[in-house]
Amino acid sequence: MRRTDWHRGQSMTLTLDEYLRTLYPAGTPGELLAYVKRPFVRRFGKASDLGRFAHRIRQLDAAGLDVYLTVNTLNGQSIRSRGRWTRGEEREVVAVVGLVADVDAEKPGHNYPPQSRILRAVEDMPLRPTMVVVSGKADGGLHLYWLFPSPFVVQGDADRAWIKAMSVGWQRLLKGKLAPYDLDSTFDLVRVLRAVGTINHKYGLEVQCLTFDPDRRHRPEDFVVHLRQPTPTPRPFAHRPSSVLDSAKFVERARGYVATIPPAVSGQHGHDATFRVACALVLGFDLSVESAFPILSEWNQSCEPPWSERELLHKFHDADKQPGGRGYLLTDHHHDDHRNHHHHDHRPGAAAIRRAFRHGVQTRRRRAHA
How far apart are CA 171 and CA 183, in angstroms? Predict the structure, then answer.
């Protein structure tokens, strides 16, 4: 294993086994989850047997499949009980190994920064990352890891909300450093990243570390100190400030509501179905993007094919612009009606959602014929 100083920015060799040992020290609770998007394949593992887990990842990689790793550990039993096609949800996170960010680099049609600009922004952050990973092309996007000295074990909703708020705030700070370039929201606690030491088969290149210092770790409290300061990042929605302080009760209610909605399928009005779910979250449950995005992302994994994160955020923005009242799915009456299937229209949002849906369809048709 070679270590590089931050300012040198040299590529380095880090094996898959070393990468896993860096993330999951002995005694890390919960299960590890690696998966392939297409065809959907998942493999579970434990920190107590990283060698076996690494072997399973290598088998998938050798078969020419792109392997993604859920960075934080999960309640594997809960995931398996929901079916063979499921991945982890935030409520199933057992331990958080640190804060991460998936930063896309410049590409045609997007306002992403060049890699050199990303590195300058990271250098300007108050805490240096443990690891910076090149996920594909040498000058392409980067995966950033700020690892904790030991995994933060989630012991309840309060812990989950606290660590999630930290993740959101840290990415806001990074986004401010990257302005005026775009940074996609990757603050969810079930973030998946390409595993170091595997191949990005799109380019035929190995996922490698750009910088790595296993001793550079930061306590959760270290982040809090810096997040108390206001950040210049603009709020993504006009209706209300982005916040992860939405009631855990309503977030879980929204998650349960969306879980009953069939996934979108290409060629079967998939755009419209996804837009209705976005409306239900930001209009019906009046959630902020931080709270709503992970729920839509979880639902999106079952869609055929799944939407990109940028497309999901675009649907949120379209939904947020719709007229009409908000919070109409927060009442027990609406929730019980939906749960007991007493709605005349089982689609999210009933009358208000129908109005928003029609408005969105009309807008898209006008754009198509413009």
Answer: 9
